[in-house]
Amino acid sequence: MQALLVIDVQNGIVNFKDSSEELTKIQHIIQDFKAKNLPVIMVRHFDKIEENPLHRNSSGSEIHESVRDFADYIVEKETPSAFFQTNLASILEELGVKHIFITGFETEFCCMFTAISGYDRGYKVTFIEDATGTTNSEDTYEMKGLDIKDFVGTVLNWSETTEVLYYDEYKETYQG
Description:
By secondary structure, this protein is α/β, with parallel strands linked by helices. It has a single domain (2-175), classed as Isochorismatase-like (Rossmann fold, 3-Layer(aba) Sandwich). The chain has helices spanning 11-14, 20-35, 88-95, 107-120, 148-158, 167-175; strands at residues 2-7, 40-45, 73-77, 99-105, 124-133, 163-165. A six-stranded parallel beta sheet has the order 3-2-1-4-5-6, sandwiched between helices. The protein is globular and about 40 Å long. The two termini are 17 Å apart.
């Protein structure tokens, strides 16, 4: 069985900059999973620092309204990996999931760490590169010309542990 992980699609991240392109792709993928009666698991990140927009009691930590109502499960985390000290593995085991699809935000942290952790736990992992986004930029890392999504996708693809697809390739491979 397959499951979709929708990582950190939260107000404090989505509203940080224009994320409409990523959100549209994520919404289409969610609708595809719903049409196939496959589970959609939202992952929600919490920060311990009160001033952070993802602090547990802030509106920024809430799952964005564009995807909120599609959650079959919500997993709460405090680290980049959706597996570390959460109930994600038990949910996937209970459902009989063998293949996880990664979409969401903070490509170079939460999405990548979850993909690697999923592989380490024996799941087939599909990372939909352009259905992820980040609040960071080339300036954050002081690396002119850095395309964060492409870099992470390339690293995961070259590792030969993760299937990395663009949204159009996902549609062709899994919706056809």
